[in-house]
Amino acid sequence: MGARQGVPLTLGIVVKRNVEGVFGAVPPSNARSHPSVLAPPEVLRLPHRAESVRIARRTLRESMVRMNLPDEFSDDAEVVISELLGNAVRHARAIAGGVVVMGWQLRNARLHLRVTDGGSGRTVEARKAPLTAVSGRGLHIVERLADEWGVTNHAGGLRTVWASLPLDRVPSLRLVR
Q1: Which domains does the chain show, CATH number per domain?
Q2: Which residues contact residue 84 at a Cβ distance below 8 angstroms, ignoring those fewer than 6 apart?
Q3: How many other C-beta atoms are found inside a 10 Å radius of the C-beta of residue 26?
Q4: Is pLDDT at 89 greater than 90 in this prediction?
Q5: Which of 36, 75, 141, 169 has the most CB atoms around it within 10 Å of its CB?
Q6: Quick one: which of 122, 116, 125 has its CA closest to 150?
Q7: Given a cut of 50, is residue 96 above it in pLDDT?
Q8: What integer best gives the mean pLDDT of the chain?
Q9: What's the pLDDT at 119?
Q10: By mean pLDDT, which of 17-26, 80-89, 151-160 is the weakest?
Q11: Nearest-angstrom CA–CA distance, 75 and 136
Q12: What is the DSSP secondary structure assignment for residue 65, as one 8-state letter?
């Protein structure tokens, strides 16, 4: 299947850097200086375990620091990747080797996040959770923080759930450290 809304399906591709910068000539006032419009995609293979979510958040945060992304933006991106990866570990099968694959890329003033798993046979959609439920709101959080998200099914039962966050948005969350 092809990519949806311009989100790449191939993990680990080599891309060219744009020399004009992420925001063109004048970055928005809430952004730091960025190295390029197009950063190479980064990919992380993680064990299909709940503990991998912590590793994913830390790795993504370190990458966003290297890209000079604002802390507030990084907070939202960490929450989104936590939800996507948590769902993959909780509800989907592992890819061969007992792993899930997380990828991210800064491209066209957006941070694209994706998690690929072995699929589950269930439709991925935001569902209404009862008020007393302790879980079931993750994709609603993703909908709130990302301006686009979706699912791409691949051959062999693999599935990628992705989200895209524009760099010029006002952050929704502020995490206390």
Answers
A1: 42-166 (3.30.565.10)
A2: 102, 113, 114, 115, 142, 161, 162, 163
A3: 7
A4: yes
A5: 75
A6: 125
A7: yes
A8: 74
A9: 84
A10: 17-26
A11: 21
A12: H
Q: Is 97 left (phi over 0), alpha (psi -120 to 50) or beta?
A: left
Query: pLDDT tens digit string along 98-117?
Result: 999 999 999 989 999 999 99
162 vs 168: CA distance, rounded Å: 19
End-to-end CA gap in the chain: 41
Q: How far is CA 6 from the centre of its chain?
A: 14
Type of residue numbered 99: V
Spatial distance between the Cα atoms of 9 and 53, rounded to a whole number of angstroms: 21
DSSP per-residue letters across 101-135: EEEEEEETTEEEEEEEE---SS-----PPPTT-SS
User: What phi and psi, each to the nearest 5 degrees, are found at residue 46?
Assistant: -125, 145
In this structure, how many other beta carbons lie within 10 angstroms of the beta carbon of residue 90?
12
Kindly state the average pLDDT of the residues 46-51. Answer: 95
Are the C-beta atoms of 164 and 146 separated by less than 8 Å? yes
Query: Binning pLDDT at 50, 70 and 90, where does residue 70 land?
Result: confident
Helical residues (DSSP H) of 32-174, grouped into ranges: 52-66, 71-91, 138-145
Residue 53 tokens, joined? 């979510």
Query: For residue 131, what are the β-bridge partners?
Result: none
